[in-house]
Amino acid sequence: MSNCVSVVLSQKGWSVTYTTQSICTLKGSTVEMSCSYTYPSGTVTTTFWFTKKYAVENYVNLRNDSNYKGRVTYRSDKMNGHNLTITDLRESDSAMYKFRFITDQTGGKYTGDPGVTLSVTDLQVKVTTTWWSTTLTCSTTCTLTGNPTYTWYRNSKIVQDDSSPSYTVYFKTEDSFYCAVKGINSNAVSVEGHSYFHVTYTHQRICTLKRSSVDISCSYTYPSGHTVSETIWYTKGKLNEVPQILSLGYGGRVEYLGNMQSDSILRITDLREEDSAEYKFRFTTWEPTFPGTTLTVTDNTAGHILSILQTIT
C-alpha cells in the first residue's frame, strides 16, 4: 500500500491526492478512504464521493445511493482533506471510488481520477491434506491490506495468532477450526477422521533440583497400519541414532519407560546442572503395506520356468 499516491489529471492547480490507490478488506468490516485536494481560487461549496455516473454531471453521491443507506460517513478538515467511511461492507461494495468537489467559480469542478479501487472479500478456510498432516489456510480473493494478523481457533479457543494465514494439524481430532481477522470469522471446518504422526509432551518446561530425578514424558500417534520399531530421546541438535541419550555425561543415569507404542518416559537420575537442555522424542515406524515374495513349489518344468519369469519381472 502506498503512503501517498498523487492522482493528477492536472489543470493549473486542480488536483486530488488519494492516500492509497487500492484496498482489499473483509466483508462485514469498516473501511476508510482519504484524500486531499487543491484548487486555484474560490470557495468549495460541495464535496462528495461516488462510484456511479449516469450522464454528464449526473453523479450519484454515495450518501444518496440506496445501496449505502446508513453506512456512509463523510469527514472534512480545514486543510482540504476529506475522508469516506463505509461500515458493514458487502462484496457488492467492490468498486472504484472517486472524490469530486465543486467551487463557487465558473467551471470550478474537479474529479480525482482514477480513484481508489476497493475489493471486498470474505474469509474461507481451504483444506490441504497429506499423508502426515492437514494444513488449513485462511483464504481471500485478494491480498488483505495492512499485513493483518490471522487468529486460529480450535473449538472457539485460540491456538495460533500469527501473520501467517495457515495452521497445520498433525493429530487425529474431531474438533472444529476457524480463522479470524480483526473480529471477522471464517467458516468452521472439521478435520475429523485423520490420523497423523504427532508427539505431545506432558510438560513444556520442568524445573527441578540438582541430584534429584526427573521423568520427561510424552504420548505419540501415527496412522493405523504402522508399527513402532524404534524410539529415541535426544537433546536438541544432538540426535543419537542409538536408542539412548548421548552416552557421554549420561552413562548409567538414563532409563526408558512406557509402553513404547503410544507413550514414552525418559527418566534421568542424579541430575547435574549440565543436564539442562531441551529434550525431544523421536520414533520410527514400519508400515507393512509392500508386497512380499510369493513362492510356488511345483514339479512341473514349465511351471518352474514360469515361476522364475515371475520372480524376474
TrEMBL record:
Residues 114-190 form the Ig-like domain. Signal peptide: none annotated. This is Ig-like domain-containing protein. SMART domains: IG (SM00409). It comes from Oncorhynchus kisutch. Coiled coil: none annotated. SUPFAM superfamilies: Immunoglobulin.
